[in-house]
Design a protein that fits this description.
The chain has helices at residues 3-12, 16-25, 92-100, 104-126, 133-148, 216-232, 239-250, 337-349, 357-362, 369-377; strands spanning 78-80, 157-167, 170-172, 189-198, 201-210, 254-257, 260-263, 265-266, 272-275, 285-286, 302-310, 317-318, 324-327, 354-356, 381-384, 387-388, 395-404, 409-411. The protein has 2 domains: 78-315 and 390-411, Creatine Amidinohydrolase (Alpha-Beta Complex); 322-384, Winged helix-like DNA-binding domain superfamily/Winged helix DNA-binding domain (Arc Repressor Mutant, subunit A, Orthogonal Bundle), CATH 1.10.10. The radius of gyration is 28 Å and the shape is globular. It is α+β, with helices and mostly antiparallel strands and 418 residues long. Strand 4 and strand 5 form a beta hairpin. Helix 4 (104-126) runs antiparallel to helix 5 (133-148), helix 6 runs antiparallel to helix 7 and helix 8 (337-349) packs across helix 10. It is found in: Cytoplasm. A divalent metal cation 2 binds at residues 204, 273, 306, 399.
Length: 418
C-alpha cells in the first residue's frame, strides 16, 4: 500500500475526540494578508532570533573573543563566610540575594575578574623558558584588551596597570621597556602581576611562575600565606591581625637551594591594599607582618590581599630602570609644551591608572623622556621603579581581590588555578 493511502486510512480511523485534540494542539494558519472581522489586516508575527551565548570552552588561544559574548551577567567569585570572631554570617537568604544582585559595580567587577581568569589560564599554558619577557607581557596585555573590549582614548574598560613580570630577587614593578631583550630561563622565579578594570572597578591579582621544583616550597609558602590573608579578612577585622596571620604561615616554611636552607620571610615593606574607583592603591594598607595597625576593614570595601615571600632579607629597595608611572591628582601649570601634550595623552588614556613606557610607545608617542621627567619633577606623575631584595635571592607573590559584602566576603578573582 502506498504511504499516502496508509496516512489517509489512519486519519479516518481516528475518533472524533482524537481529531478535536489534534486541531486544538495545532494553531490555525492565517494567510499573511487575511482580514479580521473588523476589517483590519492581521500581520504575521516574525519570530525574534535569540542571540546564542558561546560556551567558554570556545575561547581562542591566545584569547580574542570578548567575555560579553559568553555572559551578560558575569560569574561570581568564591563566597566565603566570615570567621568565627566576626559577627557577620552568611545566611541562605543573603546568598540568594547576592546571586540576584543587579548592582552594576559588582557586575563590572565580575566582568573584569572573568577577563583576568581567562587570560591567566592561557598565560599558564603559554609561558615557558626561552620566551622574551616583553613578548610575555604584550601577549597578556593584548589578550586583556581584546577580552575587555578596550579602546584608545577611552578608560571605561582596559588594563588597570602594566603587566609585571618581575624576576628572582626583583619582587614587583618590573616590566620591560623598549630594547629590553631579557629572556625567561628555567631557573627563574617570575611574578606575573596584571590588573583589569571596567568603569574603574579594579581586579588586582597575581601569581608566580617557576619551572625548577627547587622553588616549590617558596611558592607554596606565599600561596598559603595569601589564602590565609583572604580567610582572615572581614568586616571589623584589624589590619595588624591579618598581617600577623600571614606572617605566621609564611615563616613556617623553609626552602633548600644549593644545599642551603632558608626560612621564607615576608617582605615587610610590601603590603596589600584597599582598592578605589580608578585607584589601585586606596587609603588602607594590608600588612603581611604584625605591625600594630589597629585600623579596621569595613563593610563594602574592596581589598587586594597580596603577599610576598623572600629567601633574602625580606626588605626591598628601588633598583633598575623605571618603567611604571602613575598620574596623581595634583594640578600644576606647565611651561614645557611637549610636557602638556604628553599629559593630555596620559589623562585621556590612563587617567589615574598606572602606565608604562611601552604603553606610550604603542600610542605613537616618541621622544617623550624629557617631557615625562618634567611631569615627574613637577609632581604630576609619580614613578614606581622596580622593587628588589638582595642580589641572588628569590621572591614569590600571590594576590587576590576580595569584596566585603554585608553577609559574606567574595573572593572575586578566584579561579581553578589559584
Amino acid at each position: 500500500m502506498a504511504d499516502t493511502e496508509k496516512v489517509e486510512e489512519k486519519v479516518e480511523n481516528l475518533s472524533l475526540e482524537d481529531k478535536k485534540e489534534q486541531v486544538a494542539d495545532k494553531p490555525a494558519e492565517i494567510p499573511e494578508n487575511a482580514s479580521t472581522e473588523d476589517g483590519k489586516k492581521k500581520k504575521k508575527k516574525k519570530n525574534k532570533k535569540k542571540t546564542k551565548k558561546l560556551d567558554v570552552s570556545e575561547q581562542t588561544e591566545p584569547p580574542t573573543i570578548p567575555v560579553t559574548k559568553f555572559y551578560s551577567k558575569f560569574p561570581v567569585g568564591e563566597y566565603m563566610d566570615y570567621g568565627e570572631d566576626n559577627l557577620k554570617k552568611t545566611t541562605d537568604e543573603e546568598k540568594r540575594y547576592l546571586e540576584r544582585l543587579e548592582n552594576n559595580d559588582i557586575n563590572d567587577l565580575r566582568r573584569a575578574a572573568e577577563v583576568h581568569r581567562q587570560v591567566r589560564y592561557y598565560a599558564h599554558k603559554y609561558i615557558k623558558p626561552g620566551l622574551k619577557m616583553v613578548d610575555i607581557c604584550e601577549n597578556i596585555e593584548n589578550s586583556v584588551r581584546s577580552l575587555i573590549e578596550a579602546k584608545d582614548n577611552d578608560i571605561t574598560s582596559g588594563l588597570a596597570f602594566p603587566c609585571g613580570c618581575s624576576l628572582n630577587n626583583c619582587a614587583a614593578h618590573y616590566t620591560p621597556n623598549a630594547g629590553d631583550d631579557t629572556v625567561l630561563k628555567y631557573d627563574d622565579v617570575c611574578k606575573i602581576d596584571f590588573g583589569t578594570q571596567v568603569n574603574g572597578q579594579i581586579i588586582d591579582s597575581a601569581f608566580t611562575v617557576h619551572f625548577n621544583p627547587t622553588y616549590d616550597n617558596l611558592i607554596n609558602a606565599v600561596k598559603d600565606a595569601t589564602n590565609t590573608g583572604v580567610k582572615c579578612s572581614g568586616i571589623d577585622v584589624r589590619l595588624t591581625d591579618v598581617g600577623e596571620a600571614i606572617q605566621e604561615v609564611m615563616e613556617s616554611y623553609e626552602v633548600e637551594i644549593d644545599g642551603k636552607t632558608y626560612q621564607v620571610k615576608p617582605i615587610r615593606n610590601l603590603s596589600g591594599h584597599s582598592l578605589g574607583k580608578y585607584k589601585i592603591h586606596n587609603s588602607k594598607s594590608v600588612p603581611i607582618i604584625k605591625n600594630g595597625d589597629n585600623t579596621k576593614m569595613e563593610e563594602g570595601e574592596h581589598f587586594a590581599i597580596e603577599t610576598f615571600g623572600s629567601t633574602g632579607k625580606g626588605y626591598v629597595h628601588d633598583d633598575m630602570e623605571c618603567s611604571h608611572y602613575m598620574r596623581n591628582e595634583n594640578h600644576v601649570s606647565l611651561r614645557l609644551a611637549r610636557a602638556k601634550t604628553l599629559l593630555n595623552t596620559i589623562n585621556k588614556n590612563f587617567g589615574t591608572l598606572a602606565f608604562c613606557k611601552r604603553y606610550l610607545d604603542r600610542l605613537g608617542e616618541t621622544k617623550y623622556n624629557m617631557a615625562l621627567n618634567h611631569l615627574v619633577e613637577n609632581g604630576l606623575v609619580d614613578p614606581y621603579p622596580p622593587l628588589c631584595d638582595i642580589h641572588g635571592c628569590y621572591t614569590a607573590q600571590f594576590e587576590h581581590t576580595i569584596v566585603l559584602h554585608p553577609g559574606c566576603k567574595e573572593v572575586i578573582s578566584r579561579g581553578d588555578d589559584y
